Amino acid sequence: MGGTMKRRILSILLAAVVTAGTLLGCGSTKESTGTDKAAEASEETAADTTSDTEVATDAEPVEITIAYPSDDGAEEKLNILIDEFNKSYPNIKVNYVLIPFSSWPDYITKLKTMVAGGTGPDVARLAVEGIQSFVADGMALPFDDFIAENADLMEELGVNDIHPNINAPFQVDGKTYGFAWDWNNIVMFLNKDVFAEKNIELPGSDWNKDKFLEIAQTLTYEKDGEKVYGTVAPTDYFTVTAWLYNNNASVLNEDMTECTLNSPEAIETIQFLHDLVYKYEVAPAPSAGLDTSNLFMNGQIAMLGNGRWSIASLANNNFEDYDIQALPALSTQQSSFGSGSFPVLSSTKHPYEAMLFSSWLSASSFSQETFLKTDSVPSRISVMEKILPTMLPENGMLWRESADVAKSIQAPTQLTDVTAVFDKYMSLVFANEISVEDGMNKATEEINAILAE
Known about the structure:
By secondary structure, the chain is α+β, with helices and mostly antiparallel strands. The protein folds into 2 domains: 2-183 and 339-389, D-Maltodextrin-Binding Protein, domain 2; 187-334 and 414-452, 3-Layer(aba) Sandwich (D-Maltodextrin-Binding Protein, domain 2). Helices cover 45% and strands 13% of the residues. The strands form 5 sheets. Strands 4, 7, 13, 14 and 15 form a 5-stranded mixed β-sheet that branches. Strand 5 and strand 6 (175-176) form a beta hairpin. The radius of gyration is 24 Å and the shape is globular.
């Protein structure tokens, strides 16, 4: 990238000034242009060198593509974001491709297939679950030169306001591969109506396993012929990781080279989750059709481990009688998290424009405040502190506090295969087809074989 980076950014800004009066919004749902908001490029800067002026004069519109998970509202969201981006950078035409989404491992596989087939995007929506794999396969470009040569732009966009802990997963082997836009951790959602029904106070941040179980047992009862459950037993990788961390356990060791699901602490944690269903009977048996969010809103589940992504559904259903609390401590209380960004793929022909668009998406006030208000947790410290105290849940600043101490989930390069094994044995364990100990021993053996490849 070298010393042409600043000239390239200058070219983009000056071209925005020249063309803003003539470029109009396009009718296509996959692209958008706008008007002039990029006049910050000063004449003094433009006059620094003749080559800078020549680059600006000769600049041609550039076309890039972003890949994004297909979910409710994704198309509308991207159209609005691209429209706003083009108000400042009208000569960067942004298209998008929506990839059907069922899980991050599945999405990553589809994205890599596109790249291998020569149809990969310039920028991709990617979570911590995929960045290690993309870097290891040489599919992601480092931003370090872009950052070093555009310090003022980084400050202007708000990149320096992104919480360093939340951004850490996108720094691999000393290099930066994008900036965190959003993040989530698992907290306990509390149905206040169910608590009030049994005259139970909402738990404080210092609750532990015994207090959690006591509350869950009290809040498991029959009402109008329907079973009300105190809680839910998770089986997915992301949520179970949160419980493992709370017992000084994890799926993998610290450098993600060996599986540790057969450790006494991990087995104890999975056994406790299993016991919530089969021993204490305070949680429904996990099944593919179990809609825990609706059961929570209907008052049939009192406590549900979930991320902030769920508040949009709660708001859409006009459900407001809830609050949140950190997961109860088992042997400790260690919050986990996953964050998302917009890495630039190494196959791009326009790295400067792609990195500029990626940085704007991740850090701009418009992007963070408009689309993360009722979604995931914003990565910028100032945006968290602006939004979280002004809306439900009442204890929403818990997310801001968690950002300082949360630990990233483990996402090795072989994550897709690792989670497949994890899911298989969690399903067998909760179907009572294998014991917790045998299941975790077998999972450890198979995951270690994957990691050794």
